[in-house]
Amino acid sequence: MQKILYVGMDVHQATIVIVVLNAEGKTISEAIIETKTETVRDFIRGLRGELHVTFEEGTQAAWLYDLLRPHVTQVLVCNPRHNKLLGAGNKSDRIDALKLAQLLRAGLLKPVYHGESGTRALKEMVRSYECLVSDTTRVMNRLKAIYRARGITCAGHDVYREDRRPEWLQKLTERGVRLRAEVLYRQLTALQELRAQAKRAMLAESGKHGAQKLLAGVPKLGAVRVAQVIASVDTPHRFRSKRQFWAYCGLAVVSKASAEYRVEDGRVKKAAKVAATRGLNGNYNHRLKSVFKSAAQSACASEPFKQQYDALLAKGINVALARLTVTRKLAAITLAVWKRGEAFDAERAVKRAA
Description:
Number of strands: 9
Strand content: 15-25%
Distance between the termini: 51 Å
Oligomer: single chain
Shape: globular
Helix content: 40-55%
Number of domains: 3
Strand order of the largest sheet: 3-2-1-4-5
Order of helices and strands: EEEHEHEHHHHHHHEEEEHHHH
Number of helices: 13
């Protein structure tokens, strides 16, 4: 029978601090190695037994996961937001690696999903497109800030139009400010061209996935949002139910209560009214939440969701909660269509996701 070993890794740019525990929780090995492919592989090959390895999600997580997976029994990339024990007491690289190994042995780590490499190219293209969108927005905001700081009204998109730029530059009388605006305009032109190229590449890569045609039929998702959903989810079978998917998208309602019980006549009874706070879960995929919230904002103004949205408002439900309901329904429909592998049917999908 093979011995079981629990390997905790504290990963950094230059080095990895490793602590190995046996099944009884005793430290049997400690090491500091370079963060290099051959060094990591050689160390793991030098261990004998059933290896369970863990390290925190970070910059090197995807590379290290792919490197270790063929050589060990289990690779668990853990969510650092849930590792509260790491912040208690003294802290060092060795202590962190030891605590990770202890938490892995106790089964107290929350894993971060690392799927197959089939969507790896699309993930990178989506990240590239989103970075260019963010950079473009930043430059546009800087341009408008220049005009607003000098009392020049610049609402709308006219200030960005290439054929109107000379006219807008004439409004800036200070030479230094005008030169700065010219540089920003050149930067904006370059970013817009790169953004268009990145978008075309992303959509072309998205079209290679079978889910693209299915999800394109879901109302208000659109080609860009579909690409973002595929890159983020990877496979719909990760989620057993729509409620798990809601939690991943930041759309799950969580409640926190205290002092739920009281004692009457020597017997414990649950209080009729419990002080509880409710809200959406705080640990989620930010891209997916943005995708479904923006899609739902448009969906609330058109069928098949407008009638349901209006009905919620007629019941006295406030706008934010009604829009959240549509957002959750849209996410549930997306998951259902993808799982079934069937084209979107408005009447059936809306009824089943309700």
